[in-house]
Amino acid sequence: MKEWQEMLALAKEWAQEAGDYLLERAEGPMDMESKTSAIDLVTEMDVWSETFLKDKIKSFYPDHHIRTEESEDEKGQSPYEWVIDPIDGTVNYARGLPFYCISIGIRYEGNTVIGLVHAPKLNETYEAIKGEGAFLNGKEITVSQTGQLHSAVIGTGFPYDKDRDKDNNLEYINKMIPQVGGIRRMGSAALDLCQVAAGRMDGYWELKLNDWDVEAGLLIVKEAGGQAVVQPEKKGLFILSANSLLFSTLQKIIDR
Ligand code: LIP
C-alpha cells in the first residue's frame, strides 16, 4: 500500500535523525533515573528521542494514536497507532555498548502493518511492511535454516524484577543450556527479534516485555519467514520466536 510506504519512509527519516543525535550524545555525560529497579533506566536521551518522534508524528498525522515507553498514550481518531520504544536497550546505550535501537511499529485497526528498527551505532536499519518481506539496510533478509537444537544459537533476556520474582527465566535457562548450541543475552528485545529475522540467531524468548519492545521486531521476524507467539500474561508479554524448524521444539521446552 502506497500510504504504508510513505509512512515507513517518514519513520525511517525521523529514526535516522533521532539516531544521529543519540550517537552524538552517547559519549558525553547524561542525566538518568531508575524506574522499577536500579538497572531499569530512563536517560535524558530516551525522553529526548520520544519527544522528537512524537512531535514529528503529531505534525504529520495529528489524528493518529501514539503509544510510547516513557509517557502517556496520545489518543487520536484515526485507525493508525504508532507504538514506539525511543531507545530499546537503554542500559546498553548508557554503558556505551552498541546494541541499542529506536523501535517503531505502526498498527492499522489493531494489526501491525509497519515495523522499523534503527540501530545507530551498528549502522543497521531493519524494516518491514506486512506482506512485503523484511529488509536490513535495503537487502531482503530471511530466518536461518538451522533445524538441530544442538547447533542453534538462541537469544533471551531477564526481567527487571529478577531479584523479587521467582519467575525470572532461570528455570528455562536451566532447561535450555544443556540442549542448545549457545545462548545470547544482548539487551534489546527489538534487536534480538531482528537477529532472528536476519538468520544470525535461530530463536529468541523473553518474559515480561511490553508491546513497545517488540511491536516492530515481531513483524520484521514474521516477514523474514519466522514464527512467533505473543502471550499476554499478568506481568507483561511472553514472547517466543524462531525459524519454523525450531519453533515447536522451543515451545515444548518453554511450556507456559
Ligand atoms: C529492555 C529490553 C531488554 C529486556 C528488558 C527491557 P528498554 O528494554 O529490550 O531486552 O531484557 O527487560 O525491556 O528498557 O531498554 O527499553
TrEMBL record:
GO biological processes: inositol metabolic process; signal transduction
**Cofactor(s) for this UniProt protein:** Mg(2+)
Q: Does the keyword Transit peptide apply?
A: no
Q: Which UniProt keywords apply?
A: Hydrolase, Magnesium, Metal-binding
Q: Which PROSITE patterns match?
A: IMP_1
Q: What class of enzyme is it?
A: hydrolase
Q: Where does Mg(2+) bind?
A: 69, 85, 87-88, 213
Give the enzyme's EC designation.
3.1.3.25
- Could you tell me the superkingdom of the organism this chain comes from? Bacteria
Record-linked InterPro entries: IMPase, Inositol_monoP_metal-BS, Inositol_monophosphatase-like, Inositol_monophosphatase_SuhB
A molecular function (GO) held by this record is:
inositol monophosphate 1-phosphatase activity
State the reactions this protein catalyses: a myo-inositol phosphate + H2O = myo-inositol + phosphate
Q: Which Gene3D superfamilies match?
A: 3.40.190.80, Fructose-1,6-Bisphosphatase, subunit A, domain 1 (3.30.540.10)
- Family membership: Belongs to the inositol monophosphatase superfamily.
Task: Output this protein's name.
Answer: Inositol-1-monophosphatase
| Organism ancestry | Bacteria, Bacillati, Bacillota, Bacilli, Bacillales
